[in-house]
Design a protein that fits this description.
The structure is a single chain. The chain is mostly helical and 219 residues long. 64% of the residues lie in helices and 0% in strands. Helix 7 (185-200) runs antiparallel to helix 8. The radius of gyration is 18 Å and the shape is globular.
């Protein structure tokens, strides 16, 4: 199933970038949903079974190490070549930039294509810390579904409510596709957690609620 989901997501990304069809949030957004399905099907249940946030931290670490090594190598090569790399590459913060205001072939030294992996790392950090808090306060007695719903609701606030305070006419016009709000982990946490809810839904009642959330979210 993980291999099938990855294959399907790669197809969706390529088809989206080639404009074969369009769906909200950009082509890469499907990868965040699939990553959420993986998390909800594997790491989150394991964390509750073990009563420990370690599975989430383990996934975070496995992703952080190669990303950091790549970023250091890229930064060093560009510096030696006189390409003026941006410090955001080393800070793993390519998603915290407003690319709608940048111009030129190098985006001012920023590595735009790294926004997804940096955003995913930050989401995993949020989840790992969240699980650590649950372990401290609740001892993992509540079901993982409640954890997923809580973060999904928080993510919806980050995606649909908070940006309105920073972008005039947000509810009517939205924001530029390359603006900061379109890349932040707070924006994509809800998509990630929706994938986790899809993986966790087991009973007919849970599946009905997740389908309703999916339809409302898409609308």
């Amino acid at each position: 199933m993980p291999i099938l989901l990855r294959a399907a997501s790669i197809f969706l990304v390529v088809a989206g970038h080639l404009a074969l069809f369009r769906y909200g949030g950009g082509a890469t957004t499907s990868l965040l949903l699939v990553s959420g399905v993986m998390f909800g099907g594997l790491q989150l249940p394991e964390a509750y079974i073990r009563a420990s946030p370690r599975p989430a931290f383990r996934w975070l670490w496995k992703l952080f190490v190669p990303t950091m090594l790549f970023s250091i190598g890229l930064f060093s090569i560009k510096a030696l070549a006189g390409k003026a790399p941006n410090i955001s590459t080393l800070l793993l913060a390519a998603d915290f930039q407003d690319y709608s205001r940048l111009s030129g072939p190098y985006w001012g030294g920023h590595e735009f294509y790294l926004w997804f992996i940096h955003c995913l790392l930050q989401i995993l950090a949020i989840l790992a810390v969240g699980l650590a808090v649950v372990g401290r306060l609740d001892g993992f007695r509540s079901p993982p579904m409640r954890f997923a719903w809580t973060l999904f609701r928080a993510g919806c606030v980050g995606r649909f409510v908070i940006p309105a305070f920073f972008y005039a006419g947000f509810f009517r016009l939205g924001a530029h596709p390359l603006a900061t709000v379109g890349l932040l982990p707070t924006t994509h946490l809800s998509t990630f957690m929706l994938g986790a809810l899809i993986a966790l839904a087991a009973t007919p009642r849970e599946k009905l609620w997740v389908v309703a959330a999916l339809v409302a979210y898409a609308a």
